[in-house]
Amino acid sequence: MRGVGVSPGIGHGPAYVLSVSVPEPPAGATYAGEADDEKERAAAALGQVAGELEARGNRAGGEAMEILKAQALIVEDPGLAVGIKSLIDRGLAAPRAVYEAFAKYRDMLAGVGGYLGERVADLNDLRDRVIALLTGQALPGLPTDPVEPYVLIARDLAPADTALLHKDYVAAFVTEEGGPTSHTAILARSLGVPAVVACPGALNVPMGARVLVDGTSGEVRQEPTDVDVARAVSEASARKRALRETRGPGRTSDGFEVPLLANIGGPGELDAALAHGAEGIGLYRTEFLFLDKDRTPSAEEQERAYRTVLEAFPGGKVVVRTLDAGADKPLPFLPPLAAEPNPALGERGLRLFRRFPDVMRSQLSALAAAAEGTYAQLDVMAPMVATTEEARWFAEQCREAGLTSRGVMIEIPAAAIRAESLVTVVDFISIGTNDLAQYTFAADRTLAALGRLQDAWQPALLDLVATAATAASDNGKPCGACGESAADPVMACVLVGLGVTTLSMSPSALPTVRAALAEHTLGECELAAQAARAATTPAHARAAARSNLLGLARLGL
Predict the structure, then answer these.
(1) How far apart are CA 116 and CA 99, in angstroms?
(2) Sheet with strand 220-222: strands edge to edge
(3) Which parts of 278-415 are beta strand (E)?
(4) Catalytic one among 183, 398, 479, 493?
(5) Residue ranges of the chain with per-residue pLDDT less than 50
(6) Which residue in 154, 189, 195, 147 sits closest to 171, CA to CA?
(7) Closest C-alpha among 188, 272, 252 to residue 501
(8) Contact in structure between 416 and 467 (CB atoms under 8 Å)
(9) Catalytic: 199?
(10) Most buried among 204, 302, 452, 551, by the most CB within 10 A?
(11) Residue (of 260, 236, 262) closest to 249 by Cα position
(12) pLDDT value of position 112
């Protein structure tokens, strides 16, 4: 079988097939007793699930913590609670009310991109957890004390399950659904567990069957021979040796420097970034400071979190993304916004900052204070910028706060198309390829059925990246890429060929990308980029790029 390799490495072992099955509560099911008691039962189940999600996130830390806290907020959404109570008032039992309320919620979000779209694939898992509590069912779990590391196979893995995976127990995992930029894939890379997603037929593998998984090529083989396993392990070991031998700053074989940076969701992920040779931070997500607070985090609390990261990279670059809240990540300490029919296209990111400027000023002031006395280059960028006017306004707010390097993210097609104008009012840009793909193709990145549209190799997406990067270069401004596409060593070379000057990714991907760049000249990267843009399909684009990057074969990539 073949799927999409999203986390490199070789894993093999007996298959453990995870089939979550919480039966749909009977249509029209009613309850005995008082409506208020049934409502309290539903509210208690919602609260317990939210608490369990937060607890798992706190144990896992890093990106998992951020993702699971966001999911806890979904479960605690006031609109969802109101919908459940209304259905109970109409006579439905709590389990059925939960089922129908989630169905309406999911239908409303289907087709919506951005942060809401990223969570659509997880809603069924959240629903099933609540229903299982209400009906006394146990959700299928993972083996707690396996005899040997196993290969986990599932239709898809919810972040709540992925966050608890440990590479001492899980040799690899394979899912039938999901995409290369889904939460499952992002967490797999951060955990360092080989993974393949979007693999048709994976659930047909019998429980206990021996499975060999190649997280680089996407190949999944049933009942491999000892020779097959030995060869795959040997090749993987050779790749690791080659990667270890490539050290130092990111650069092409002819000396063109490409700083390689890490994406992190808090100071707790610094160790991984440093261990994998990050030259700095290309995307510091700051939501962890705000999402679970009933008040604005204090200046001291913010300054401490920012300074810790700045001090870890003296002389390096640290790019901080200002608060990207709103949509499915409401801030408890702010007044609720008016209902939005399409929240992911509503007031989030910079737009929310403009609505509540005091929150923005406190964050920008804390960043400026944190930078004092440190030796890192602090770059501050705003998410969800669509126009030059918005970019100019943000740059002015940063200037007033004493921040000297102001930038914006390119994740809305309008910003990419008009980048020539936009870059004249900021000091740098950073391309978020994940959201840029979603908004360009109107395709939720977590839906396997739309995987062909989420593919970073879509020539139209490469055109937008090239447009933005060229605009930055023509104006003497840096252009980074901080979407997960930079973790693909082939794509990393193409991004450099398109004009991107820094690459940021999950820390575990840094050694592979460093080695891939070191095998090729800048000219070869540019030829690969031209060939990819000339293609008509993602598959042809990737193949065309590889044909110009012969050094990948020497690395076994």
Answers:
(1) 19
(2) 4-7, 195-197, 170-175, 150-154, 10-18, 210-214, 220-222
(3) 280-285, 317-321, 377-382, 406-410
(4) 183
(5) 111-118
(6) 195
(7) 252
(8) yes
(9) no
(10) 302
(11) 260
(12) 46
Residue located via tokens 């669509």: 386
Strand bridging mode 210-214 / 220-222: antiparallel
Sequence-distant (6+) residues with CB within 8 A of 64 are: 56, 57, 159, 162, 163, 187, 190
Query: 196 has which bridge partners?
Result: 5, 174
Whole-angstrom CA distances from 523 to 76, 261, 477, 495, 520 are: 52, 22, 21, 12, 8
Query: Cα–Cα–Cα angle for 531, 536, 538, nearest 5°?
Result: 80
Q: Determine the pLDDT at residue 128.
A: 86
Helix, strand, coil fractions of the chain, as percent rounded to 5: 50, 15, 35
User: Smallest Cα–Cα separation from 511: which of 489, 540, 526?
Assistant: 489
Neighbours of 38 (CB within 10 A): 25
Phi-psi region of 261 (alpha: psi -120 to 50; beta: other; left: phi over 0): beta
DSSP 174-240: EESS--TTSHHHHHHHHHT--EEES-TTGGGSPTT-EEEEETTT-BEEES--HHHHHHHHHHHHHHH
Query: Which two three-digit tokens encode residue 94?
Result: 């709590």
Per the annotation, the verdict on 398 as an active-site residue is no
State the pLDDT at residue 114: 43
92 φ, ψ (degrees, to nearest 5) = -80, 140
Look at strands 260-264 and 502-505 and give their pairing. parallel
Instruction: Locate 216 and state its tokens.
Output: 């680089």
- Residues in CB range of 80: below 8 A, 6 or more apart: 46, 74, 101, 102, 105
DSSP string, 462-478: HHHHHHHHHHHHHTT--
Strand partners, 210: 14
Q: What is the pTM of this model?
A: 0.69
Residue 444: what pLDDT? 67
